[in-house]
């Protein structure tokens, strides 16, 4: 008898991002800012000092210290991961056991359910309201009804661009005291409703942060988990010993220390997103072409439209990559020039 894959793996399909060259990439919610030559020179100097024959610092102390300084969180509450994806995988596999139930929400980041199911954790999905918002009381009741051991969701949300305010999130955390709440704040740098400063108050909260969005280091797989000391020690014990390589640690340390630069980038991205939203809203006002253009608190705009397939394809034909979901489009805010080109092509689509 020949070897066969188990049922968890047999139907898995590898992640399939948009491939090929496109002049404008607005599909992955990346920062529109590449690093300046000056910052690249700073990084090159740091990389030149890396001892390549030695293993990296297993606790990533220098990038954690830089993160601590940037966000005002004690170092002992921070764990580093090879992107938030690795941290989600560690939490799903180690904080829950086979047969436990974790609640996610729809629509949200697809990898939450993927990792849970891969580790034989049951997933119960809370359906958002018709306007894509979360009703905190209904979510709390749903978690209780399903005897959830965990709840995971992004705030602000990817892909909807919408967010729950601090009071609502706090209510969820405090109402589910026997449930581990994993709160992904990947896009919170673009908004002002973070609960990061209060993380030590709770014994059931993990906050995830990324370097791939506002920080602009999508090429360097690096993320952080912030929680109380007990959970932080557990994450540090459960992760691979050398999960963050020395080159990545050097790069992240250098860039997280550039607070003024990061603030300028964030402010520009927020302004560009607002302009993009206003321009798309204006097109909708003129052509009545979308069911909804959601006002974002992220770095992207989410659109409800039956024409999502046609618009998506037309954009690719014009060398612009955006992201499609069934019934929706997600468009990352690029530079002013990139946004202007996208708006010109979108307008052309409706005036052909």
List keywords for this structure.
single chain; 352 residues; alpha/beta; Aspartate Aminotransferase, domain 1; Aspartate Aminotransferase, domain 2; 2 domains; 7-stranded mixed beta sheet; 4-stranded antiparallel beta sheet; 12 helices
Structure notes:
The chain contains twelve helices and 13 strands. Strands 2-8-7-6-5-3-4 form a seven-stranded mixed beta sheet. α10 (259-287) packs parallel to α12 (336-351). It has helices at 7-10, 37-48, 61-71, 83-94, 111-118, 136-145, 166-175, 229-238, 246-256, 259-287, 308-317, 336-351; strands at 24-25, 78-81, 101-106, 122-127, 150-154, 180-184, 205-210, 223-227, 292-294, 300-304, 320-321, 323-325, 328-332. The longest helix is centred in the C-terminal third of the chain and has 29 residues, at 259-287. The protein is globular, with a radius of gyration of 21 Å. β5, α7 and β6 form a beta-alpha-beta unit. It folds into two domains: 20-35 and 260-351, Aspartate Aminotransferase, domain 1, CATH 3.90.1150.10; 50-257, 3-Layer(aba) Sandwich (Aspartate Aminotransferase, domain 2). It is α/β, with parallel strands linked by helices and 352 residues long.
